[in-house]
Design brief:
The structure is a homodimer.
Chain A lengths: L1 E2 L2 H21 L6 E7 L3 H17 L2 E7 L5 H13 L5 E4 L9 H7 L11 H9 L7 H12 L8 E5 L6 H9 L8 E5 L6 H6 L3 E4 L17 E4 L3 E4 L7 E4 L4 H4 L5 E2 L6 H17 L6
Parallel strand pairs in A: 1-11, 2-3, 2-4, 5-6, 5-7, 7-8, 8-11
Antiparallel strand pairs in A: 9-10
Helix pairs in contact in A: 1-10, 2-10, 6-7, 6-10
């Protein structure tokens, strides 16, 4: 069994990005600039955004953090989005989700200029991804593709089962795994809460990608001997023995499942760091105007 | 075994549309107007466009056919598209595919104003469909959903296998069948030319949707007893015994497969007429400005 070290790969990619940024700046080019909007003080969101800002520093990007209190009105937030759309120095930006319930996430996402939508959530980027056109691919699926690539994991013709059909992970992951590309060319099955034979599908998977957000959902008897298991889950499960008061828990019961796998990602240190590094890669593309002029 | 009569259903829907158009016009509203651009004189394309024009008449739509010779330049064609974008009387329009090789289909599709893109091929409509937002859903998958609905075929939790991963049928079909909706909520598997165990997957399908464009590809031993089989194939296979010189042939070896099915679509008279009627439904939506203001 090989443990897929997302942390190490992500550090390596950040160094690659930093080297490219140094070369761009040395040649008189513009330093890429990522802005992030954070609404409220949710613990998870605070951590994610802090990690993104830290990653920007490592990559040599300029970063800007814009905060709103949780009672910001939708109109104020949309005005903030429009300001970033119009700010020529900002190459790309994100609005950290989830947002307070009185704000429409979809409206916020659609207000972001798709040319700066480095999260890849805007319908134009989603559509272009599905069609196979250059675009900002959403961060988590792209990070998983990068892991498969760097570990030389064969995907062509394999049976890939994706657990979960979210817009952010499940659906784009399925699309990317079936595309004519490498990684890609897999036979892809998407299972979800309504699937009658979820366990049976999982047992046949050569590559199992768990993105349901249900801690320890995938047990050993759901995994074929020699399978590749990618765990996208990052639920904060209360744990009094820890200083933070919680334990970041994946969708896979790791200790039980790992011995059956050819490759497996841990939580934390697997997909999580790759998600942030994918955002960095999109920001570099935005800085270079590589996708949209 | 129940034969799914796409022809009868499509006639019925056209009557429903015609009644709604009559009511709109009686109330002083505008008659929906579909325009079609046809390049060259390909036999299949001529037939498709003629059928679309005919369907417009039945539905009470205004229709306009704009022809270009096969040697039209890309720039001339794009100028024609822009004229239709700007023509306030045209509610929606299509450019019949395929186009001659010297013209970029993707560029043409992206030049169409997404608010008039009743084929649903523009990245914005594709992205919105994937996310689950109101949009023009592409015609063939939408027609298949309509057949499933009108025949009360249960899809929730069922195993649905889609053969083919095209942008026009396979990918959107898979997305729609997995969405939280009715029809939908199926466990969806997409198989294609690279799939290692395509036959094995087909044999487990409760609903099999064949969209590979390979005549008679699906044999009886690939179909589970009691399965629902939807045949999207429409290949013109040479047949000297026919006046037309060809026989429209599906992806399913009908005579052999039909006895095993609970429901099956014939070719012709199954999915084909539903595709045209879906275009009519999108045109009605466009005329009413129901999706985009």
């Amino acid at each position: 069994m090989t443990l897929i070290d997302g942390k190490a790969i992500s550090e390596q990619i950040k160094q690659e990005i930093a080297a490219e940024v140094a070369a761009i700046v040395a040649a008189g080019g513009k330093r890429p600039h990522l802005a992030a909007i954070l609404v409220g003080h949710d613990g998870g969101s605070e951590t994610y955004v802090a990690n993104k800002v830290k990653a920007c520093q490592v990559c040599g990007f300029t970063s800007t953090l814009i905060r709103y209190e949780a009672d910001v009105t939708e109109e104020e937030l949309l005005a903030g989005v429009r300001r970033l759309n119009d700010d020529a120095d900002v190459d790309g930006f994100i609005v950290q989700l989830p947002l307070p319930r009185h704000i429409s996430e979809q409206k916020v996402i659609e207000t972001i200029d798709y040319r700066k939508d480095v999260d890849g959530f805007h319908p134009i980027n989603v559509g272009r991804m599905v069609i196979g056109l250059p675009c900002y691919v959403s961060a988590t699926p792209n990070g998983i593709l990068e892991l498969l690539k760097r570990y030389n994991i064969a995907t062509s013709g394999k049976k890939c089962v994706v657990l979960g059909r979210s817009n952010i992970v499940g659906k784009p992951m399925a699309t990317l795994m079936m595309q004519k590309a490498c990684p890609g060319d897999a036979t892809v099955t998407v299972c979800h809460s309504r699937s009658a034979d979820l366990v049976g599908e999982c047992r046949k998977a050569d590559i199992l990608i768990a993105a349901m957000g249900q801690p320890n959902f995938v047990k050993a008897d759901m995994v074929k001997e020699g399978a590749v298991v990618i765990d996208v889950g990052t639920t904060r499960v209360p744990d009094a023995s820890r200083k933070s008061g919680f334990k970041l828990t994946g969708d896979v019961l790791f200790d039980e499942v790992a011995p059956r796998c050819s490759f497996i990602t841990p939580v934390p240190g697997g997909v999580g760091p790759m998600t942030i590094v994918s955002l960095m890669k999109n920001t570099l593309l935005a800085g270079k105007k590589a996708i949209y002029p």
